[in-house]
Structure formats: structure tokens, C-alpha cells
């Protein structure tokens, strides 16, 4: 079995998982999670992650338009703003790991300016801003790589340790030989609003805006975001 070559913090272990490999041995007694990879995922996405020790990212699905795979939501002074990563269009179905980012549009500047405007006065912006700016200073060619780096960064800032693996083929039924796996693929979708139990102080808005991108929680609550996410599981 070959290992995925990706540079991540020491607390993240990444490798390829083959559903048909009968020699693969599952040690954990806690049900694992199978989920799609999003761009700066929503808070409830992270609530789901914290309930499982091992996370399988669906690496063999086709890209789905108008999903959280290339968009996120942040809270600005006037509204909830949708940040979308533009991708190069294809006339046919394309694997998620093969989706290229469209740099004919200045999306990096747009996203970073929106984040600065929304969270410049947030309690943890000055501590974490450089981490996110570095993300936007790079020219990452593939959407998958951008999303994975963003996910890894957010886990690091929240001080959440998880084992992350990738699927090596697509299966409709999420089952790993001797035990089932919780399948949350496409569970989080812009058209399916999910009420979040995670409450905290936000920079803008008289009314609390639930289930924003995880960046909203990270920049407002810092490491305490981990505790808030865990409490939502109880």
C-alpha cells in the first residue's frame, strides 16, 4: 500500500485507504467517519470530526457544483458573505482531486480582504492572521490541495488531533469490512441549513449567525473553540 505524500503537522497521519484491501486491519472500536472535503468547512463539520478518531476523506467522488467543496460562509458587518473559490469548468464529470482552481479571477485577494474586513477586530485575528494569509499567498493549483491545507491548518489552530486518511475508490455503501463507517458525504450542503449548537460572541450582528465557516469560530474564540465544539457533542 502506497502512502500519500503530503506535508502535514505531526498530529495528522495521512495515507491511502483501499476499501478492497482485505489485509487492512481496523483497531479502533469507535465508528470512523467518511466525509467529503470542504473549503474552510462549517462549524458543524468540525463538531462531526471531533466525534471520531479516524476521518476518511472522500477522494474519489466527482466534483459537485454549488456545494461547500469550493465555498464557505463568513459573517460581515452587513450580511453573511459567501466566499467561492472559482474552478476551471469542465464539460464532463471530473474527479474532485483533479479540479483546478481558476486564477484568471483575483479570488485570493477578494477572500483575504473579506476576511480582514469581517474579522480584523476579532480577538484572535492578530494571532492567527498570518497563518491564513500564507494560505492565500500561495498559488495552489488544485482545489483538493487547498481544502486539505485549510482543514489541516484549522485543526492545528484548534489543537484537535485526528487521523486523516483518503479513500482510493468510490463506494456508495460506506462499510469497512468488519464494521460500518458513519457516512456524512454530502450531509453538509448550502441548501440544507443545519442549526448549530455552538454559541459564542461574534464581531458583527445583533442576532447570532449559526454554523458559519470554522474561521469565524477560530478568530473569535481561538483555542477555546475546541471546547465549544466538544460541548456540542454532549
Q: What's the structural blueprint in terms of helices and strands?
A:
Layout: E1 16-17, E2 33-35, H1 43-49, E3 54-57, E4 71-75, E5 80-84, H2 107-119, H3 125-137, H4 143-158, E6 163-167, E7 175-176, E8 179-180, E9 182-183, H5 214-221, H6 224-231
Parallel strand pairs: 1-6, 2-3, 2-9, 3-6
Antiparallel strand pairs: 4-5, 7-8
Helix pairs in contact: 2-3, 3-4
Q: How would you sum up this structure, described in words?
A:
The structure is a single chain. By secondary structure, the protein is an alpha/beta fold. It has helices at 43-49, 107-119, 125-137, 143-158, 214-221, 224-231; strands at 16-17, 33-35, 54-57, 71-75, 80-84, 163-167, 175-176, 179-180, 182-183. Helix 2 (107-119) packs antiparallel against helix 3 (125-137) and helix 3 runs antiparallel to helix 4. Mean pLDDT is 86; it is low at 1-29.
Amino acid at each position: 500500500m502506497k502512502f500519500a505524500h503530503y506535508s502535514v503537522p505531526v498530529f495528522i497521519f495521512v495515507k491511502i485507504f483501499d476499501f478492497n484491501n482485505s489485509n487492512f486491519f481496523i483497531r479502533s472500536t469507535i465508528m470512523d467517519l467518511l466525509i467529503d472535503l470542504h473549503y474552510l468547512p462549517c462549524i458543524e463539520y468540525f463538531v462531526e470530526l471531533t466525534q471520531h478518531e479516524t476521518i476518511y476523506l472522500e477522494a474519489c467522488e466527482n466534483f459537485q457544483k454549488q456545494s461547500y467543496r469550493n465555498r464557505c460562509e463568513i459573517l460581515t458587518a452587513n450580511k453573511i458573505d459567501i466566499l467561492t473559490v472559482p474552478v476551471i469548468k469542465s464539460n464532463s464529470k471530473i474527479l474532485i482531486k483533479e479540479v483546478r482552481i481558476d486564477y484568471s479571477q483575483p479570488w485570493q485577494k477578494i477572500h483575504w480582504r473579506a476576511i480582514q474586513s469581517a474579522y480584523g477586530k476579532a480577538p484572535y485575528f492578530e494571532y492567527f492572521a498570518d497563518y491564513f494569509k500564507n494560505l492565500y499567498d500561495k498559488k495552489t493549483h488544485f482545489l483538493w490541495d487547498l481544502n486539505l491545507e485549510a482543514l489541516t491548518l484549522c485543526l492545528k489552530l484548534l489543537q484537535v488531533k485526528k487521523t486523516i486518511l483518503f479513500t482510493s475508490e468510490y463506494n456508495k455503501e460506506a462499510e469497512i469490512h468488519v464494521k460500518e463507517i458513519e457516512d456524512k458525504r454530502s450531509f453538509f450542503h448550502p441548501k440544507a441549513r443545519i442549526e448549530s449548537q455552538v454559541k459564542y460572541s461574534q464581531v458583527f450582528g445583533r442576532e447570532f449567525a449559526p454554523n458559519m465557516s470554522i474561521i469565524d469560530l477560530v478568530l473569535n474564540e481561538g483555542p477555546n473553540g475546541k471546547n465549544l465544539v466538544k460541548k456540542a457533542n454532549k
